[in-house]
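Milestone M4 deliverable, item 7.
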Amino acid sequence: MRGPLFLAPLALVAGGTALATAPIAQKLGEPLPPRTPEQVYSSTCAYCHGANVGPVIRGRALPAAMVEMTVRQGRNAMPAFRPSEISPAELHGLAQWIEAGPADLKEKGQ
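Output delivered:
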């Protein structure tokens, strides 16, 4: 009974070896590269804004300074986001993107 069940652990060991020799993209302790405004919005903002939870914010020419202040301090039901969650550089890029960007017609809000 040394069929596929016997070979499965060997395949895992071989796969693990291949992964161990792959180059590491980031060294321990190094900061992550900044995310693009689109990445920050889709992973942090779009969950509420544009999904019928919070107001639509894209395409409204909201001032970048107001976006930055609101993200850091929170407002009404929106929580504040710490620099460890959205870096200052990411927040600045996001605020500029929201201020200048067009609306997404697929988004809905209150």
